[in-house]
């Protein structure tokens, strides 16, 4: 059914729902829209037709403001899109993108409630509209999950979300694809009915050219330009065609002929004049055009600073709607939520269990040429830590054969006169080299594994110290090393490598989980058109970022509580300082991770590249931040780079708080906080700039 509305009257700008003048848009070198003029009169249905790839979706994105035009003017309901204080994007426009843009974990009811909240509808209003739309669009039960719906059903839910708030302007990108003919007719009938009031305008793209005969105006697009614009009957009459499809084919042939006469391809050639259906008109203008609005006219649309400021301030209603959305999604994915909570604990537990501990059960060959059970060698060996060192008594030859075969990590050998020579060393002032040699423990090590070799050296020294203290009594000072390690100033004699690694590991885990979750969720939401859809519904980028930050803070808080419980209570990592400072520093590192995730998602469009970016910086950052090995070991030029990384000073600050009990009055502590805050600010600004540049 075709609406019998008069469309051929020239429309003033105030009568136009949408006006595009000389609009150009390129993706890199690819020119997608070239000097395009289009006019959607108020209270009309405009059918935008054209082959796949001709630029329809790009044009709609420029109209809603999610894409910036390279040149020209666009006005939507009288003002440029995204004009401060103007509700476009916002509730005046109902946008159905091509990608459907629905949250799969939502039910139909969740979906419509979410958009209702963003548009400021009361729950009663949302409910009433929901009931109507479920009935009108023949949707399944309201509590059906979107991910369980068929393609056509999802498309109808997406259309329902666009119709929800009774907008003044409907922008629909292929709403009837995959919809059965009966429902398609019903949708068109509904569109015709709502424009009858004169207040609602619709621009709709469709591949079913013939259904566009029900539109009041059609625009035929090819290679980024409008070939013709006018009422469907007029277009067909002009080309003596019985169908719109034939008319369109003729227009395409004419367009190709003109291009070849001008000696260029249709894609890159000079502008062809668009066809008009009124005699005597300037053919360079489409039928409904009123000429380009003067630049000064558009510049009148500048809002005063108060309106701008109000427009820039985040709306708590939107933030709350987005946070509720995230909570609902979390609730629907309990497995994923548990994984997010438990993963850091699992990671830190693995680090505490597997990194930094002493090797156990190391096989060592013992060649003892003394036989007496009361000899010093037997006594010394009894002080060796048996849980770490497995002593295997062997002959000299078998011991060396074994170590060459990789069976033992070391050989400990005592000469047959060890006891007497050691006694001589203690009692006599001057002893021969033979006595010194015979009174020494001889050790051969396999140094291919440094950690094991170091442990064996340490255990032998300890065993010898214990032997000297216990067996030699007052003579002990004669064989003791002339170096005495007093009680440590900070830390304890038993401080192991795990203690060094843990604070940095906690920060690193918190940072990277936040990076991964933020980058992935934003990249996926953008890919599925959800970010654009929310933006067109009136949610600003700042509101999206804040809502994500607040929701993620909840996740980070639970992660940190579990992490601290495990490292302090289960693994007994000491904390001499303020627990509040410890928590604040870890939270701030989480926020830095979120901000960095935002940078990745602002700069990158697909999840594979986002994953690569996150993984690409993981190892360099971990290795260079002094988390697993001290910064002091890094060669100088690299060390300067290491010091500016987000976790280097922060790890040092956390170690200072936890092991030295320092507070913010110490430079090494406040420096960690300052660098973390600095990175936060930098990443947030960078993400905002990239987002602005890429629109
Ligand atoms: N993000 C992008 N980056 C680069 N090129 C793009 C991008 N989006 C679209 N294009 C290109 O721009 C051209 C127009 O695409 P657009 O999606 O606007 O076409 P369309 O007319 O809506 O097609 P369809 O009817 O198949 O949806 C195509 O050649 C497409 O490859």
Automatic annotation (TrEMBL):
GO terms for molecular function: ABC-type transporter activity; ATP binding; ATP hydrolysis activity. Residues 258-283 are annotated as: Disordered. Residues 465-694 form the ABC transmembrane type-2 domain. It is found in: Membrane. GO terms for cellular component: ATP-binding cassette (ABC) transporter complex. Keywords: ATP-binding, Membrane, Nucleotide-binding, Transmembrane, Transmembrane helix. SUPFAM superfamilies: P-loop containing nucleoside triphosphate hydrolases (SSF52540). The gene is abch1. This is ABC transporter G family member 23. Residues 18-248 form the ABC transporter domain. Residues 258-278 have a biased composition (Polar residues). It comes from the Eukaryota. It is a multi-pass membrane protein. CDD domains: ABC_DR_subfamily_A. The chain crosses the membrane at residues 500-524, 545-571, 577-601, 668-691. The lineage of its organism: Eukaryota, Metazoa, Chordata, Craniata, Vertebrata.
């Amino acid at each position: 059914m075709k609406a019998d509305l008069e469309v051929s009257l020239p429309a003033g700008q105030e009568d136009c729902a949408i006006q595009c003048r000389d609009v150009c848009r390129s993706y890199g070198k690819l020119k997608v829209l070239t000097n395009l003029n289009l006019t959607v009169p108020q209270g009309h249905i405009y059918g935008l037709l054209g082959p796949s790839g001709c630029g329809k979706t790009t044009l709609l994105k420029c109209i809603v403001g999610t894409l910036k035009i390279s040149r020209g003017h666009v006005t939507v309901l009288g003002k440029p899109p995204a004009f401060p204080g103007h509700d476009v994007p916002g509730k005046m426009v109902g946008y159905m993108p091509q990608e459907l843009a629905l949250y799969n974990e939502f039910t139909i009811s969740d979906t419509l409630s979410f958009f209702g909240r963003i548009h400021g509808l009361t729950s009663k209003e949302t409910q009433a509209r929901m009931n109507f739309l479920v009935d009108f669009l023949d949707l399944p039960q309201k509590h059906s999950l979107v991910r369980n719906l068929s393609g056509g059903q999802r498309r109808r839910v997406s259309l329902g979300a666009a119709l929800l708030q009774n907008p003044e302007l409907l922008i629909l990108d292929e709403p009837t694809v995959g919809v059965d003919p009966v429902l398609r007719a019903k949708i068109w009938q509904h569109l015709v009915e709502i424009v009858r009031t004169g207040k609602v305008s619709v621009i709709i793209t469709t591949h079913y050219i013939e259904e566009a005969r029900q539109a009041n105006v059609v625009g035929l697009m090819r290679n980024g330009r409008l070939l013709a614009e006018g009422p469907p009957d007029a277009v067909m009459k002009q080309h003596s065609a019985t169908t719109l499809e034939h008319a369109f084919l003729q227009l395409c042939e004419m367009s190709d002929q003109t291009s070849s006469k001008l000696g260029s391809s249709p894609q890159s050639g000079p502008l062809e004049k668009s066809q008009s259906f009124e005699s005597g008109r300037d053919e360079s203008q489409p039928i409904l055009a009123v000429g380009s609005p003067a630049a000064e006219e558009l510049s009148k649309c500048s809002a005063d600073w108060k309106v701008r400021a109000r427009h820039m301030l985040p709306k708590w209603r939107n933030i709350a709607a987005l946070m509720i959305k995230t909570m609902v999604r979390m609730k629907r994915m309990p497995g994923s939520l548990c994984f997010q909570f438990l993963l850091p604990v699992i990671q830190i537990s693995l680090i505490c269990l597997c990194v930094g501990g002493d090797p156990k059960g190391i096989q060592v060959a013992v060649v003892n040429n003394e036989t007496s059970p009361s000899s010093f060698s037997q006594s010394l060996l009894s002080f060796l830590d048996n849980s770490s060192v497995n002593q295997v008594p062997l002959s000299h030859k078998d011991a060396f054969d074994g170590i060459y075969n990789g069976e033992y990590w070391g050989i400990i050998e005592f000469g047959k006169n060890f006891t007497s020579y050691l006694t001589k060393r203690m009692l006599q002032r001057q002893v021969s080299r033979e006595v010194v040699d015979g009174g020494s423990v001889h050790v051969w090590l396999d140094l291919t594994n440094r950690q094991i070799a170091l442990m064996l050296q340490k255990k032998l020294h300890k065993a010898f110290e214990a032997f000297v203290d216990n067996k030699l009594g007052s003579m002990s000072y004669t064989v003791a090393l002339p170096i005495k390690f007093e009680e440590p100033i900070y830390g304890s004699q038993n401080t192991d490598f795990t203690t060094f690694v843990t604070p940095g590991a906690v920060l690193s885990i918190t940072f990277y989980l936040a990076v991964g979750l933020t980058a992935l969720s934003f990249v996926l939401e953008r890919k599925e058109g959800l970010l654009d859809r929310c933006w067109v519904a009136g949610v600003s980028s700042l509101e999206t970022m804040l809502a994500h930050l607040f929701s993620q803070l909840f996740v980070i808080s639970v992660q940190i509580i579990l992490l601290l419980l495990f490292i302090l209570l289960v693994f007994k990592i000491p904390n001499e300082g303020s627990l509040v400072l410890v928590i604040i520093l870890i939270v701030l590192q989480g926020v830095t991770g979120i901000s960095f995730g935002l940078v990745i998602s602002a700069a990158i469009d697909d999840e594979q590249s986002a994953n690569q970016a996150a993984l690409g910086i993981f190892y360099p950052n971990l290795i260079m931040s002094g988390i697993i090995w001290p910064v002091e070991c890094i060669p100088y030029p690299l060390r300067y780079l290491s010091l500016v990384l987000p976790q280097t000073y922060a790890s040092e600050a956390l170690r200072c708080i936890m092991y030295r009990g320092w507070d913010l009055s110490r430079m090494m502590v406040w420096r960690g906080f300052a660098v973390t805050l600095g990175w936060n600010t930098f990443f947030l600004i960078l993400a905002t700039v990239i987002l602005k540049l890429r629109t």
